[in-house]
Every structure is written in C-alpha cells, then in structure tokens.
C-alpha cells in the first residue's frame, strides 16, 4: 500500500473514531501531498513513496520551526499542539538512522568520494544523502560530515 493510500485510510479511521487532532493533521498532510502531486504532473499525478516521504519531512520541519517560534513567543499550548502533530506525522516516516549508522554512511561516502578536506564536503554530502535516503536529518548529516572531514 502506498503512503498516500495509507494516509487516506487513516483519515477514514480518524473520522470513525472522531479523533479530531489526528484527523486535522492528516487532512493537512493529504492537502500537502496533493499539492505536490499537482506541481509534479497535474491533477492526476501520484507521488511515489520517496516523494511522499519528502513532503512529510517538510511538514515535520515546518512544525519544528513553529515550535521554536511559539516557545520564544510564550505560547506553550500552541507548541504542544505542534509537537502532537509531529508525532502523528513521524509515524509515516521511515525509522531514523542511529548515530552509529550515520557515522558509517558518512565514512563510506568519504571513502567513495576520496575526500580529504572540507572543500570536498559537497561531493560527500551528495553521496551520503543518497545513501541515507531521507532517514537522516540534513543538519545531522552535515555536522557528521564536517566532524569526519576535520
């Protein structure tokens, strides 16, 4: 079952259960998926799971940014809502890489690129990003590459 089909089924389940926070979050996700599909190829386009995962990661990132703003603005109740939405969205993402797995991927990417200095970080990031396949945050990946190239 594709990720989009899973979201559609979960929307129906949330409607039956009258779980409004989950339902609202999933409806926003479905709209984001549909908008991305339309941008990709028109009204009938369907995203594959990799593209859908990228949309979900983008939604999680937006909510993380909102949490920072709400906490700085003294609105903990809104930050709590965003955190709850992140938990719902995270269930659709593949399991994140551990620090050890990330270090191994970066080490392999450095060896594959033949990099020895920070000036070659772009080539290493390209290879490491492809190997991580969306299971690692870009910031974490970048900091690990910098650490190993130092």
From TrEMBL:
Q: Which domain of life is it from?
A: Bacteria
Signal peptide stretch = none
Which Pfam families does the record cross-reference, listed alphabetically?
YqeY (PF09424)
Please give the Gene Ontology molecular function terms for this protein: carbon-nitrogen ligase activity, with glutamine as amido-N-donor
Q: What is this protein called?
A: Glutamyl-tRNA amidotransferase
């Amino acid at each position: 079952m594709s990720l989009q089909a899973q979201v559609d089924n979960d929307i129906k389940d949330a409607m039956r259960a009258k779980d409004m926070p989950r339902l609202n979050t999933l409806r926003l996700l479905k709209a984001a998926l549909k908008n991305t599909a339309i941008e990709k190829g028109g009204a009938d386009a369907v995203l594959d799971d990799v593209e859908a995962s990228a949309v979900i990661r983008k939604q999680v990132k937006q909510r993380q940014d909102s949490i920072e703003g709400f906490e700085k603005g003294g609105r903990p109740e809104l930050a709590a809502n965003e955190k709850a939405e992140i938990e719902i969205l995270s269930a659709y993402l593949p399991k994140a890489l551990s620090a050890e797995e990330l270090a191994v991927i970066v080490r392999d990417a450095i060896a594959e690129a033949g990099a020895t200095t920070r000036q070659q970080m772009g080539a290493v990031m390209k290879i490491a990003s492809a190997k991580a396949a969306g299971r690692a945050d870009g910031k974490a990946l970048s900091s690990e590459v910098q650490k190993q190239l130092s």
